[in-house]
Amino acid sequence: MKGIILAGGSGTRLYPLTKSISKHLLPLYDKPMIYYPLCTLMEAGIREILIISTEQDLGRYEQLLGDGSTLGISIRYAVQPKPEGIAQAFIIGEAFIRGERTALILGDNLFYGPGFQDPVWNEDDALVFGANVEDPERFGVVGFSSEGHVESIEEKPACPKSDYAVAGLYVYNSDVVEVAKSLRPSRRGELEITDINRFYLQSGELSVRLLGQYDTWMDAGTHESLFKASQFVKTMEETRNVKIGCIEEVAFCKGWITAGELMKLGHPLRNNPYGQYLMRVAGRGSAG
């Protein structure tokens, strides 16, 4: 399976924070925001990842993450000339996907919990995640029949049929590129990811997994939600004495890098808590 992180857009909802920097590079507590979606893909075992962003921002991501080799993964980069919808990512990434199953995650979304690490990612059907939210009209909304079966998905409906929004993590089979190419722009002038989900729903190939009580999804694309996401990470890290979104630790736990390589990554950061944490994890690994 391959993974795509869509980190484009202009970030206007976060102005003035994003007038000079991509929102996906803003700090979400103690790490750049993009660490969290990257960590989600890595935890699912995905090692080939494409980051899509604007031409002016792409170099900053390359400076931050390089080619991924220090993490035992491969990271490639592609330009989104202008934001024309989430589904556009599959057209931009066609050469990268090359007929393989692909997971697309939005660069400003945080996922945490056991529900995102299930091997169901590798099944044949398309897979999306449904989260109960207070403001479903901001998202794609899942509609259910009286028997509880998924019967519709609507994009930002004025009158939502449920409180379940489709979270910003989508897993599709190799047909998704051709499906994306067949779409027509919506009234917003975008290729809507909801239209891809409708295609798979109508063909009987869409699975919707509702998040459990131990799963968390947060869209950090507004000032308020960015602050709340940072609070969540801070609280979880302090109460559990672990790091959330720590890409180096995930690479080590997956066996993609050694304890010595993890120690090497932590050493330049030894004067701050993040580097000290990496070195402690590496030390425990060496001892084990």
Structural write-up:
This is Glucose-1-phosphate thymidylyltransferase. Its EC number is 2.7.7.24. InterPro entries: G1P_thy_trans_s, NTP_transferase_dom, Nucleotide-diphossugar_trans. The chain has helices at residues 35-43, 55-65, 88-92, 94-97, 176-182, 193-202, 223-240, 247-253, 259-266, 273-287; strands at 2-6, 27-28, 31-32, 48-53, 74-79, 102-106, 109-112, 126-132, 140-144, 150-155, 164-172, 206-210, 216-219. By secondary structure, the protein is α/β, with parallel strands linked by helices. It starts with a strand and ends with a helix. Helix 9 runs antiparallel to helix 10 (273-287). It has a single domain, classed as Alpha-Beta Complex (Spore Coat Polysaccharide Biosynthesis Protein SpsA, Chain A), CATH 3.90.550.10. The strands form four sheets. It has a seven-stranded mixed sheet.
How are the SSEs ordered, and which strands pair?
Elements: E1 2-6, E2 27-28, E3 31-32, H1 35-43, E4 48-53, H2 55-65, E5 74-79, H3 88-92, H4 94-97, E6 102-106, E7 109-112, E8 126-132, E9 140-144, E10 150-155, E11 164-172, H5 176-182, H6 193-202, E12 206-210, E13 216-219, H7 223-240, H8 247-253, H9 259-266, H10 273-287
Helix pairs in contact: 9-10
Organism: Rossellomorea marisflavi
Protein name: Glucose-1-phosphate thymidylyltransferase
Keywords: Magnesium, Metal-binding, Nucleotidyltransferase, Transferase
Distance between the termini: 31 Å
* Mean pLDDT across every amino acid position: 93
Estimated helix fraction: 25-40%
| Total separate domains | 1
Q: How many E-type strands? A: 13
Q: What is the CATH superfamily classification?
A: Spore Coat Polysaccharide Biosynthesis Protein SpsA, Chain A
Radius of gyration: 19 Å
Low-pLDDT regions: none
- Annotated CATH topology: Spore Coat Polysaccharide Biosynthesis Protein SpsA, Chain A
Number of helical segments with 4 or more residues? 10
Largest sheet descriptor: 7 strands, mixed
Structural class: alpha/beta
